[in-house]
Amino acid sequence: MIDTFDARLPHGITLACRRAGAVGAPRVLLLHGFPEAAFAWDGVMQRLAPRAQCVAPNLRGYAPSSAPPGVDAYRAKHLVADVAALIDHLGGRVDVLVAHDWGGAVAWAFAAQHPQRVRRLLIVNAPHPATFLRELRDNPAQQRASAYMNFLVRPDAEALLAENDFARLWRFFTSMGADDASHPGGGWLTADLRERYREVWRSGLSGPLNYYRASPLRPPAASHDALATLALPPEAVTVRVPTTVLWADADTALLPSLLDGLDAFVPDLRVVRVPGATHWVVHEQPQRVADAVAALLP
Q1: Which DSSP string corresponds to the chain?
Q2: What are the φ/ψ torsions at residue 238 (nearest 5 degrees)?
Q3: Which of 108, 115, 224, 276 is the 20 to 30 Å CA partner of 203?
């Protein structure tokens, strides 16, 4: 059974959370990506509930959590502060931090800055900032795969995404076979799930889009782009938490080359590939994801 609660954090942010499992069991915190919401983890949490206490927040900007105005409110330091405060609210250190897509970007930064607050890290198709910077700068294939990011930072992106019943947003899912039952892992985007996503998106898209606007990591738009001079000091992005990366190999937005050289920034690293799975592996194969989490529980 999944219940909900609001975590009111000391710095004025409230995160609307979903929870499953027994109090006193190992703690698992799950962070969603774009354009999703905390309920994306329901299938994983239900499978873990007999063994773990699972919490999945709607990240700041995603209804019904707090959505502060302005791009600056979505810079990494604020997103990391939300996770740190939520972990404190839950009682301290978590056993496994699980994160996908933008949740993964937050989790990489959090684990680098607060290694003492998490015992194990599980990343699901979210690029480490150092390898993402390298690939966005040097790899034309990843630049093409990430070109949509330059659309999402446009000032009219909210209006364009909302047109025709969010037609462009559905394409994030359906271009990868989400509603095709003949596609391996497809058929998960049911009518009921579509309506749950509509409810989140109708509440506002500015917060989710501000994650992209606040980040310098997106494909270069001109030869003088700031990406060319951006530097990430190794000490700031090295993650010393034991880390497993669960990587869906059929992800068309994040290419496998993002894994190359990852061990230079994550010394205790294990990579597990999921052949045929797409970027939406959390929806496609919740049992596979749950098994990966369960393997990391104490």
Answers
A1: --EEEEEE-TTS-EEEEEEES-TTSPEEEEE--TT--GGGGHHHHHHHTTT-EEEEEPPTTSTTS---SSGGGGSHHHHHHHHHHHHHHHTS-EEEEEEETHHHHHHHHHHHH-GGGEEEEEEES---HHHHHHHHHH-HHHHHHTTHHHHHTSTTHHHHHHHHHHHHHHHHHHTTTTT-TTSTT-----HHHHHHHHHHHHT-SHHHHHHHHH-S-S--SSTT-GGGG----HHHH---S-EEEEEETT-SSS-GGGGTTGGGT-SSEEEEEETT--TTHHHH-HHHHHHHHHTT--
A2: -80, 130
A3: 108
- Residue 285's identity, in one-letter code, is Q
pTM of the predicted model, to two decimals? 0.96
The C-alpha atoms of residue 6 and residue 45 are separated, in whole angstroms, by 18
Q: Would you mind telling me the total number of residues written for the chain in this entry?
A: 298
Q: Which class for 23: exposed (0-12), middle (13-18), buried (19 or more C-beta within 10 A)?
A: exposed
Q: What tokens appear for 146 in the block?
A: 């990430």
Please write the tens of the pLDDT for every residue from 119-169. 999 999 999 999 999 999 999 999 999 999 999 999 999 999 999 999 999
Rg (CA), the chain: 18
* DSSP string for 215-273: -S-S--SSTT-GGGG----HHHH---S-EEEEEETT-SSS-GGGGTTGGGT-SSEEEEE
The contacts of residue 103 (CB under 8 Å, 6+ apart) are 30, 31, 32, 33, 59, 126
The answer to whether residues 126 and 108 touch, using CB atoms and an 8 Å cutoff, is yes
Q: Residue holding tokens 């699901």?
A: 124
Distance CA 258, CA 126 (A): 9
Retrieve residue 57's tokens.
């927040």
